[in-house]
Amino acid sequence: MRREPAGQQTAETSDSDVRPGGRPAILLGRLETLLGYSVRRAQMRVFQDFEAEMNELGLTPGQLGALFLIEANRGLSQSELGTALGIDRSSVVPLIDRLQRRGWVRRAARASDRRAHALELAPAGIALLERLMPRLEAHEARIAAALSPAERKRLFELLSKVAAK
Amino acid sequence: MRREPAGQQTAETSDSDVRPGGRPAILLGRLETLLGYSVRRAQMRVFQDFEAEMNELGLTPGQLGALFLIEANRGLSQSELGTALGIDRSSVVPLIDRLQRRGWVRRAARASDRRAHALELAPAGIALLERLMPRLEAHEARIAAALSPAERKRLFELLSKVAAK
DNA sequence: GTCAAATTGTTTGATACTCAAACAATCATC
DNA sequence: GATGATTGTTTGAGTATCAAACAATTTGAC
Fold first, then answer.
1. Beta-strand runs (E) in A5-161
2. Is residue B153 less than 8 Å (CB to CB) from chain A?
3. Burial (CB count within 10 angstroms: exposed 0-12, middle 13-18, buried 19+), residue B26
4. Which pTM was predicted?
5. A68: nearest CB among B29, B35, B139
6. What mean pLDDT value characterizes chain B?
């Protein structure tokens, strides 16, 4: 081995419990009982599927969230968007930069306040969302494939109880 | 001349459709119907609460996950850990570096394979987990505060259905 | 046994995301 | 008009992630 980060190495590793045969499933241990970890795993699955579906469009969940929020709240400021997304307003800048560079979003002037930008969808952004909906619905269907409609509704309710502050 | 985040509590307008902050509520729009976004919001809440609780210990969810996996699978390799965590093995390096630097984890030698490191908890790591459990339980209780035991169990089931590949 | 292929940990490079702190421009308030 | 607050932005630091390369080592085919 080339370089070692200089730590104590106790070569006391007993090979007695070396897994026989190959690859037994890795135990989750205490993680199994943590609600947070359960949410995290579901989130990973969702994210992964989303990424695969939106691959061609090169859209991330965060970007889609921004687009939908701008659509539903035309003219909102970057600060307001940041608050709604739960990120700092300085983090909104590169996010909108990218959406604007792609022609999906505009930073329109706001007559009443020349500091703020009034965010709005550009025509290409509106078209994108329309074109995107079938993919999004396919993604949604895949995510909820193992759930009955009633279970899906129940999951919504329970998750919103967790998310509620 | 330092500026504080300063909440927007400048409310003194007519309270008709206006929220305490002085602004109309931001609409979620189509986001409202997306299961993925629902999971994401719950995840954000969990993450936020975790961070606040583990602030003093300076522990992230990912680091705690690694510690628990190492605890439950003593001697596993970095590659195996990466697979279990869903991250690349090159990303495991700085993760373990940090845990090792803090004295919580050891990269022990493995006689049967001198390429791999056998990951194991150092005594300080074991002590950490013990010391940490009350905090983790408090966090867990807060997260599930709005859920009955039956609802919590149901949420586990539904989330695992979503996470199942 | 020998040798090619696979594996492991690591480094490097690139991208992305986040916040904190500072700054100019602008607004709000007095 | 003066003062403080807000907005968007830049910069800097930290973290996280992957891909690609690499040396050391193991494994498997022959």
1. 105-109, 117-121
2. no
3. middle
4. 0.82
5. B29
6. 84
